[in-house]
Amino acid sequence: MVFVVQALVMVALRWVDPPTTAFMAANPAGSIQQSVPVEHVSRNFLAAVIAHEDAPLPYRSGAFEWDSLFARAQAHLRGEDDPSGSTIPQQVAKNLFLNQELSAWRKAVEAGLAAELALVVEDRRMLELYVNHAQFGPTLYGVCAASWYYFDTPPDTLYPEQAIQLAGLLPSPGHVRRAPGGGLDFQVEDGLGWLSRSHVLNAQARLPRHLDQLGFQPVEDVGITGLAADEPDSGDDCSERPQEVADLIAAEGTA
Which of 41, 200, 214, 222 is the most buried (most CB within 10 A)? Predict the structure, then answer.
């Protein structure tokens, strides 16, 4: 019965946006998230996410390459740094179903769930699930909330530099807040702002050249064509700031 339910959930993710995730539910400070169709997300941001998180996504069959997974497992057992990092399907599986534990067992479960997910969810939808449920701040999840919180703009109008900064937050999203008037502020109380800042600086150094070379081709290769600005308005396009984001900015006094 458990396997039947799991299979039904996996198939449902092809169309249904989950109202919450395991990562969001485990956040003691709560979560702010609103899904947006990936067609209404800036191609600058989508290209930056693919380049930063999983460049082979459009060209790989399955959730990961087995050789890469084996190398990561060996490095973990030896106590070494991760040589490649999780693919986007692995991160989607982790975000939706698992927790932040770093054990070998959890990584094995993550790989199994990701492999199953990749069998039923196409790359376009996988990217959509990722950008809508990835964490971008202590309580922020998804590009809709993040673009309005940091930059006062809907996700379809993110400029390249804004897109790169948001993509750079993905490895370490918990040590940043909105700067007064907008932007990223790493002077946070936990003293770990340097960690999030280092990832953003790395993205700013590496991604512009990558994006100049490839443009939006990887985005098109996952099945997303045209520009977000050309999409017709819809009721779920995140064209207005979510009220929870507005309330958070007001509470922080950073409008």
Answer: 41
Crossing angle of the two packed helices 43-53 and 160-169, in degrees rounded to 10: 40
Strand, coil or helix: what is 29?
coil
Among 239, 244, 228, 39, CA closest to 149: 244
Residue 168: burial class (beta carbons within 10 Å; 0-12, 13-18, 19+): buried
In 3-state terms, the chain is what percent helix, strand and coil (to 5)? Answer: 55, 5, 40
Helix (H, G, I), strand (E, B), or coil: what is residue 26? coil
**Entry pTM:** 0.92
Q: Which fold has domain 22-225+237-252?
A: Penicillin binding protein transpeptidase fold (1.10.3810)
Sketch the domain layout of the chain as residue ranges: 22-225+237-252
- Report the candidate in 43, 61, 39, 63 with the shortest Cα–Cα distance to residue 51: 43
Q: What is the rounded distance in angstroms from the CA atom of residue 217 to the CA atom of residue 215? A: 6
Judge whether 40 and 233 are in contact, CB under 8 Å: no
**Measured distance CA(78)–CA(64) in Å, rounded:** 21
